[in-house]
Every structure is written in C-alpha cells, then in structure tokens.
Amino acid sequence: MSTVRRTLLLAIVVAAAGGLAFATGAAVVDGPADTFAEERLAVQPVEGPNGAYAYLNDDDEIVVDVSGSNPKLPSDFEGVNPGTLASADGVFTITYTADEYARVWIEHPEENVTFVADGESIEGASNNITLGPDETVAVGLEVDARGAVAGTQLGGDDFDIRAEVADPESVDSPDTAGDGDEADGGDGASTTVSSPVPTRRQFQGSDFPRGEWVTFDAGAMEIVGGDVTLDRVRIESANGRDVAFETVGRPEPFASAGPMNDSRGAAPVGYFEFDHTFTDEDVSRVRFSVSVDRDYLNETGADPDDVSLYRRSASAPDGWKRLETERVDPAVRRLLDLPEDRVHLTAPTDDFSVFAVATDRARIRAADASLDRGAVSAGESVVVRATVANGGRADGARDVTLTADGEPLATQRVELDPGERTVVAFEPTFDEPGEYDVAVDGASAGTLAVGDPANGDGDDTASVGDGTDDAAATTDPPTEEPSGIDPSNVVGLAVFVAIVLTAVALVRRMPRS
Q1: Does domain 174-359 bear CATH number 2.40.30?
Q2: Per the record, where are the segments of Acidic residues compositional bias (predicted)?
Q3: Which of 250, 383, 420, 494 is the least crowded, having the fewest Cβ atoms under 10 Å away?
Q4: How confident is the model at residue 295 (pLDDT cuts 50, 70, 90)?
Q5: Taking 60 as the threshold, does the pLDDT of residue 120 lie above it?
Q6: Please, what's the largest Cα pairwise distance for the chain?
Q7: CATH fold label, 2-166
Q8: Taking the alpha carbons of 276, 277, 280, 286 in that order, is the dihedral positive or negative?
Q9: Overall pTM > 0.85
C-alpha cells in the first residue's frame, strides 16, 4: 500500500462588517476533476451554493477560496463575517474510482479552519474515511472567525489530501486480453484469459484473496459484433480457491434458454452464456461490465438510459429476471479512460446461466374504452373515453388514435412513466346516419347508432349493437287495436249477405228426387 499526498490551495479571508456568511447545500456533479493517486481519486467542486467556494484553476487543480479573489463569487463578496462560527457543508467532493477501497484524510494544521464530512472532522490519519469503489464523500468547512479582524487570512496557504490506497484497480487494458494472457489480479491473485474466437473467452484464476474482488479483463468479447461487448468479469472469492469459467456471446438466443419474451416490453439485443465449474462456496458474486455502441442504439431506436442486463430464471414471471443494472458515471468513465462513444453498464448476480442485454421499452396500451351514449342524431357529438396505461419498464410516448369502422378520426399524444396511467377523451361528430364500430387504439368502445333527424331518428329510436335487424324494426307498421266499424267494411258485409241469401233461394228451387 502507498500513501499519496496532494497539496492544494486554500484562501479564507475575514471580511469587513457586513460580509457574507456561508450558505448550505451540496450536490455531486459530473465534469472535469482534479485527479491524483494514479487517477484513482478525483476532487471536484459540488454543484450548489457552497460549491462556489471551490473551483478548478487553469491547471485543473482544486482551489478552495473564500475571499474576494474567487471568480465564482459575486463581485461584492469580501469573505466570512468576523466574530462568527461559520460552516459550509459540501464545498467539494472526493471520489474513489478504483475497484477496492482507499482511506482518505486531510492534513491541515491550522485550528481555525477544519475540514469536515457529515459534520465530523476528517483531518489527520486517525479521522480518515474509507471509500469503496466509485464512492464519493462531500467535504465541507468549519471556520472560526471569532476574535479575527477584517482582512485576516485564515487557514494558511494550502492543505494536503492524503490517500492510503489498497487493492488497486486491477482492470487491464483491453489490448492485453489475448490468447492465454496472464495478469496479476491484485494482492497476488493470478488471472488468465484466453480468447480462441472473438465471441468466446476462457478464464482461470488462482491465489485469490478471500472475500475480495478480482477482475478478469474480457477484452471486449463480442456479443453483437463490436456493437455490444462483454468488457470485464469481476469475481468475489468466498474461500480463495482457484476458479475457471467460460463466456460465449451471440446475437441469437441459446437453445438452453430460449428467446427472451418480456411482458413488460424489454427487447433483447444479444445474449451471453456463463459456464462455470466453481460452486457457491467458492464464489459469492459475479459482476459483469458490458458496453454498447451509442450509434447502434440510435439506429435501433433505443434510449441509452434504458439498457439493462437480464438473467434466465425459471422462477421469474416471464422466465427472465432483470438485474440491478448501473450505468457508469460520466466522471468515472473519463477517469478510467473508457470510450466516450459507448454506454458502459455493470450488473451483479449471485446465480449463473444465460444472460441477455436488452433495452427496456415503454408498453403503452389503451383499454376500457366506452361511449357516453349509444345513439345520437346525425350532426351530434358523442364522448369516447379510454384508459391508457404504460405497462413497460421505461417511460415513453405514443399517439393514441380514435377510429370508426377502422378509419382514423382523431389522435392524442400520451406520455407516461412506467406504471403510470391516464384517461383520454375524444368528442367526435358523425354527420352520416348509420352504425359505427368505435375504438381507441384497437380497444372497442362499442357500436354507435347515428339516426336521421328528418325521419325522427336519434336518441329515442336508434338501436345500438343488440344484434337485431334494424330495417325490420323501423319499417314494420305498428299494430293497432280496433276502435269501431269503418263504412267501407259495412258495404262489403252487405254484399256478402246478399250473395248468401241468393244461394239459399236457389237451393230451395232445385227439384227433389
């Protein structure tokens, strides 16, 4: 282990009466950083009010300046108020970017200025803070200006950040991952990576420190050509035993797992298989590092923020379990000198089978469509409503279309987060009489009957989607009950009676035998 010292500039001036006091607040920012300890430590001003007290000079070195000379502060700023005990949380951050951990502290002998983290001093080795991989701590100031007069400079001219770095970054350059290359994985661990073909890697490791992580460089193993690659595999050794495993990548699914079908809309990009001989007693966890070309994502219409890793799992609802995928922070990517034109992801797993790189998509669907009434007269409007929900894993937008007999009538743009739902409403007008099958994005709202006002059709006479023959229902005359004798019926009856009487007379005159 080595101890690294870095001297930084410090300027704190007590202002005349009426000077400004410290503000509070902190936020970690991405961007340029002052780096040291072989670029394993990065120091940055925070984004927020107190971040104005720190800046990077022309040499990208951090400067803490609480005086009128600070270019980030207002022109009328002179320093801290005299006679006060002031504090500023989160002036700058320290980020550790390697794979293991580091102990960090600040050396500053002056008593009236103290560097703190979470309200506790981090001055001196005994007050060090331990940072894990990609972990950040916000450092603030406590300034005792009691008894100081205007114009006094507090804290001396500089301060030292010291880091005791252990288990340094073990990621080798991708160029070193060849056919049978060996590397020191850290703390004496030995790793060997063989690459017989671009889509296959064979890994062997020995002399692992128990309970520690060891990194294998996969040398950009191809999953989908060079567009999607497996870059590193990290193993957490449980007992220090030797390990051996193999990975194979391909765009198509493996027969042992089948294709990925996710009901929540994730679309597979490529697959890789993890074949191993070690047991759960040998290895606690594995972490994969994968990268995807940004142009490739643009061509496929995928959002870089929506790329995730999945593992084949028989117990998962759709047979695939989404892993806790993290995107490498841009500041860390720059510090590790990773390609800027790629999206870099990491995901841990404690179970091993076939894995998929997939893009989470929105899955926006309309349902529960309805009409506010089933019949209207021509020229009248009707309200059509539908519930639109995003059942996918990513936010998204979609044009929702109202149709009548399959013909589009109107469209609304809907934007929804994962799991969010909303109700859309349309109010179309139908000018031609008839029946229309109304739907919203394929979800049926029912049949609308539009009547002819000239014939008295409309709300009171139209029938809606009940399976009856409307022509017969509207053309058959109504049945009437008799209420008297019509004169034309009297004449007919008289004629009929006369014919009967004549027939009777003729019968009587016929000769009898």
Answers
A1: no
A2: 167-185
A3: 494
A4: very high
A5: yes
A6: 163
A7: Immunoglobulin-like (2.60.40)
A8: negative
A9: no
